[in-house]
Write a structure and sequence with these properties.
76% of the residues lie in helices and 0% in strands. It has 96 residues and is mainly α.
Length: 96
């Protein structure tokens, strides 16, 4: 009878240990969830840094457009096809 009781307590202890291990590794606050959250945070930080650089570039372009005429003229020529007085505009068209 004492040996059987020993096996029962050993089984209960092993089951409790397995339950605690499961909660440690796979629960919402476990190791796996923490690792996924850390990876998601790193990805978001990387995206934020990229977006901040894009924003700085756009702000620099806006500043150049407000203060200088060279970028304004370049943008007008490229995007709107504008030309100066006295310039000749030549359009090359591919035949169909």
């Amino acid at each position: 009878m004492a040996i059987r009781l020993k096996y029962i307590w050993t089984t209960v202890a092993v089951l409790l240990l397995l339950l605690l291990q499961y909660r440690l590794w796979f629960d919402d606050s476990g190791v796996v969830a923490s690792t996924e959250l850390r990876q998601l945070t790193d990805t978001m930080e990387s995206n934020n840094l990229h977006q901040q650089q894009v924003n700085r570039d756009l702000l620099a372009e806006v500043h150049d457009l407000k203060t200088g005429t060279a970028l304004l003229e370049e943008t007008a020529r490229e995007d709107l096809g504008l030309i100066r007085d006295g310039e000749t505009f030549i359009l090359f068209v591919d035949p169909k």
